[in-house]
Design brief:
alpha/beta; 510 residues; Nitrilase/N-carbamoyl-D-aminoacid amidohydrolase; membrane; six-stranded mixed sheet; globular
Length: 510
Amino acid sequence: MLVRLVLAGLAGGVAALAFEPFAYAVALPVAIALLAGMLASLPEHHAGRRGYLLATVFGAVFMLTLLPWLHVVTPLWPLIALAEAPLIGLTGLAAAYARRPWWPLVVAAIWTTAEVVRSTWPLGGFPWGRVGFGVADSPFAGLLPWVGVTGTTFVVALLGAALGWAVVTVRVRPVPAVATTLGALALATAGAWLPLDPAGGVRDESALRVAAVQGNTPGVGLSAMAERRQVLDNHVRATQDLAAAVRRGAEPAPDLVLWPENSSDIDPFTDAAAYADVAGAAVAVDAPLVMGTAVSDGVGWRNRFQLWEADGRPTAYYDKRKAVPFGEYVPFRAVLDPIVPALEQIPRDMLPGDRPGVMELADVPVGVITCYEVAYAPLVTDLVDSGARLLAVPTNNATYMGTAQVEQQFAMARLTALATSRSVVVVSTNGVSGLVAPDGSVVERAPVRTTHVLTADVSPRVGLTPAVRWATVWTVLFTVPGAVLALAALLVLRRGRRTPAPLERVEATA
């Protein structure tokens, strides 16, 4: 069993290679195949319990390899990574069914269900490391506009499970093993020849000229945003420079200007100078300007994206809905504050918004989703369902510069564009900022840690991809069977029932 545990850990490390900065998408089915092969070959006695242990070790190493960037904000980051492992471990319950010919479907179903659960629970969930977010620039990516992140996870997990199962059973059941593997491979690579725009999404009659302002920050790490006035001044100055270039005829006039999250950590509604600066920037560039700021209401604060009209008036806004635990609010504050002094850095909790961030900008519905909210597929679906024809992802990754976090999040934005068939504008304080086409390709990208303004004509789109139109159907289809199978396996383990006949017995009667 010790050898199996070591191999499970190695497989978890391989899985992390599918994500930035490595981005080897093939690592995911290979890693799942390694785990599946060990699960399928477990001896009958206590297969479910041992399977759970193996999958938990896999999950622990996977998350520990994927999330070292969390060390920037907390030395306790391994605890966060390890907290994800028991949910990934649920996949190991599939070992209770290992002697069934449909076993790869069981693995894929339980894996997908566990992934959706950990993306929503506890504390709102943590979707980092979803299989569907590790397929950029691969044949698997074409599945996203059809079945979304959840369905893509299922299909890639099915391919890995089929490969692992086939290795174990090919001598016993050669025809089912080969047929299952070939079928899973065909399904997983179907995105390579399926159309990338299954919705028939069409370009609007006129494109928008979008300007994304990356103002840069003076500090690094936890001190990146310490000089709040300097950060605001950087974004104001870059916007005024853009306005001057437009007046000279060096740049076309923008229809819309986007600033990143925390472009002003100074509340412009309580600070007259900040108000005047932002309003003045909007007037100078003569275009609607959306900027991220922190707004206080005396009880808590809101991570707000405020629209300033071209005449300098603040109108519509979006309040970030998904707050970051221990970053923007402290769960169980009354209990934890006295025993964790570091939580003093978060004296007040962020109050989440309660509606999708769709704003009419230049007569086009634009969906705003903040920073790591892009990892939550239901929030993105809400925006497109609410009429968003273009997506904006303002973010502040200044704290994580120099780590894999910024590239991992940018990859999620690219895959979001592909799943929704929408252009995505990512604007960050100091990187990564970029313009992403509806097919997930990067149109333009700003250099990091510099002041830079990205400008481009972006075509809004109408029409819903199957991934968006049938989002609820896909979630039910790919998760309910897994939940039922996992519960059934738990009952088998609890009651001490025997699992189906071991491979040796099947071979003897074949």
